[in-house]
Amino acid sequence: MTYCVAIKLRDGLLFASDTRTNAGVDHVATFGKMRQLAEPGRIRLVLLSSGNLATSQSVASLLELGVRGGDPATNILAVDSLYDAAVRLGATLREVIARDARPDEGTDFSSHFLLGGQVAGEAPRLFHVYPQGNFIEATRDTPYFQIGEAKYGKPILDRVLDYDTPRDEAIKCTLISFDSTMRSNLSVGAPLDLFWHPRDDFSAREPTRLAEHDPYLAGLREQWGRGLRQAFATLPEPDWLAD
Amino acid sequence: MTYCVAIKLRDGLLFASDTRTNAGVDHVATFGKMRQLAEPGRIRLVLLSSGNLATSQSVASLLELGVRGGDPATNILAVDSLYDAAVRLGATLREVIARDARPDEGTDFSSHFLLGGQVAGEAPRLFHVYPQGNFIEATRDTPYFQIGEAKYGKPILDRVLDYDTPRDEAIKCTLISFDSTMRSNLSVGAPLDLFWHPRDDFSAREPTRLAEHDPYLAGLREQWGRGLRQAFATLPEPDWLAD
After folding, report:
1. E strand or H helix at B229, and its extent?
2. Across the strands, what pairs with B132?
3. Which of A215, A220, B46, B140 shows its CA 20 to 30 Å from the CA of B205?
4. Distance, CA of B156 to CA of B177 (rounded, Å)
5. pLDDT bracket for residue A219 (50, 70, 90)
6. How far off is chain A from B224, nearest CA to CA, in Å?
């Protein structure tokens, strides 16, 4: 399984993903699910993927070949709008699924992608690209997307996040969301990859990797547990219930 | 959809359920999912159900007919152990599914039940009864079960609950878990039914119904939102991330 979140904030885009994949509980491996394609100074694309690993790796390989090949028709970086990048990603995804899938077999070949980033001259944008190749875009009303094992970590995002949330609040909220998911589902696991794209920044940047026993994560978990217990202590007692 | 939780605590058993059912978003109705069968002074059974409403209503009707009929072989209250009640519930569930289901149709006829309660002379016990008719029992290590739309509300239970949690803490935690689920999934909705079985209590008792705009629930939600924001404010800043 997988858990990925991407958030469109006023100040930029935040991306986070786990690194665990599994085909059955006895076949667990570590694969990054965050990829960056960029041309410093002009465009940055960040991709997160969930679902069939063969499909999402093939899509990424084909996109990278397209960038190296330099033909503008197949180069996802040769676009003037993130919208066109989403179209190309969707077409490549559909192409790989059509190539590999056998409709009469039970295997699920589908993958989902979150694609976010910015082209110089446009605001940062964020898309959820479906296995069918079409996509939806995040807005101020719905500023985040999740793919993979999304339910455990959704309530904390719904309670805390909006478009105006400052970057560091969003990072804390996202890491708590991952912690909740990892506690409830063994198939989502550390290390975590985190990337911040500040609005209008086209410098070369690498994601941050947080290991399972990263001291910041450990402190966050402990402090969050303490904070929750304090929040509980202040809740009104259910004195309407007889003993 | 449905969300039900039952918890085995040192002091007794706590049950909670929502009341929304739906067959498509344009066919939403209110049905209680909590039922009690009891013989004051000797035995109390509380049932929570999720899944196919026709199946769970039929199972409840057959159990009630069995109690009225008075034949000990089909009377779920004529047992000396909760274990035997779980066996009878499982058999009735299997019987209804076998009667109604047509394997070649796509409809899912399955239901899940949580069965908890106490027979005089035994400790309180709690079971999760599967559509196959078999069941598992809650223990000190795993003191709670959920059925229905369980994922959104699981992290808060995992962080707060254990066998030694006092009743009122467990009630608050359960209501927060329901609030998280109702925010994230429209098919789970108020009013909520709540029942507390104190260990060794066999008096007649009714569940408490909390309406959507119940002032206690509203206060709990508001205070919890405030508590979470305070908990967030105390979390360490991610100062390892460059601007």
Report:
1. helix B215-233
2. none
3. B140
4. 6
5. very high
6. 6
More reliable by pLDDT, B45 or A212: B45
Determine contact: A73 vs chain B, CB below 8 A.
no
Neighbours of A196 (CB within 10 A): 24
Among the ranges A11-15, A190-194, B185-189, which has the highest mean pLDDT value?
Answer: A11-15
Within 10 angstroms of residue A41's Cβ, the number of other Cβ atoms is 10
User: Is residue B177 less than 8 Å (CB to CB) from chain A?
Assistant: no
Distance CA B177, CA B220 (A): 12
Examine the predicted complex and report whether its ipTM is higher than 0.90: no
For residues B127 and B13, the answer to whether their CB atoms sit within 8 Å is no
- For the domain spanning B3-233, the CATH number is 3.60.20.10
The chain B residue lying nearest A171, using CA atoms, is: B238
For B85, the token pair is: 């009640």
Find the length of chain B.
243
Residue B243 pLDDT > 80: no
SS3 A137: strand
> Chain A: nearest CA to B85, how far in angstroms?
26
**What's the rounded mean pLDDT across residues B15-27?**
84
pLDDT band at B187; cut points 50, 70, 90? confident
Structure confidence at residue A24 as a pLDDT band (50, 70, 90) = confident
Query: From edge to edge, which strands make up the β-sheet containing A111-119?
Result: A34-39, A43-51, A111-119, A125-129, A135-137
